[in-house]
Amino acid sequence: MDRPLVILADNDKGFKDYLEKRLSECFVVRSFDDGQEALEVICEEYPDLVICDIMLKGMSGEELSSKLKTSRDTSFIPVILMGAHIDVKRREKRCSSQADLFVCKPFNLEDLKVEISILINNSRFLRKTFLQKVFGPRARGSGAGRRSRRPR
User: Left if phi > 0, otherwise alpha if psi is -120 to 50, otherwise beta: which for 58?
Assistant: First the structure.
């Protein structure tokens, strides 16, 4: 099976490069510092998961997550938001973002890898189960081979 594709969006170049290098041990990672650019690629490639900082160029991480989670075409993609802290205002934005997980920086990288794997596996299982219920047991839905195409 192909390694899962993860889109990483963070405007802190040093942190983004570090995280991309470490996550590339387990996943195919494409990174961006601009939320709008990330959104365009996400809508073309349908990654297995998106990780984004709340502070991005182009659009905030909360806005990116909200756009993904409210679109029929991308709502199934798990989203992890990252941020240094979460106050009352951020908590409200976090709720409206519909992200699957919020991770406070600093975080343990191994814990993040576990969370990523769990979210990807759950998403793949749900897609496969849904497709099998709709199209029968031979329906594809593992996530492999769907790059650059809209979900069926």
Answer: left
Computed on alpha carbons and rounded to an integer, the radius of gyration of the chain in Å comes to 15
* 141 touches 132 (CB < 8 A): yes
Q: What is the pTM of this model?
A: 0.84
Beta bridge partners of 79: 50
Is the omega angle on the peptide bond into residue 151 within 30 degrees of 0, that is, cis? no
Q: Phi and psi dihedrals of 148, rounded to 5? A: 60, 25
Give per-residue pLDDT as tens, 94-112.
Answer: 666 888 999 988 899 999 9
Q: How many CB atoms sit inside 10 A of residue 34's CB? A: 15
Could you tell me if residue 136 is left (phi over 0), alpha (psi between -120 and 50 degrees) or otherwise beta?
Answer: left
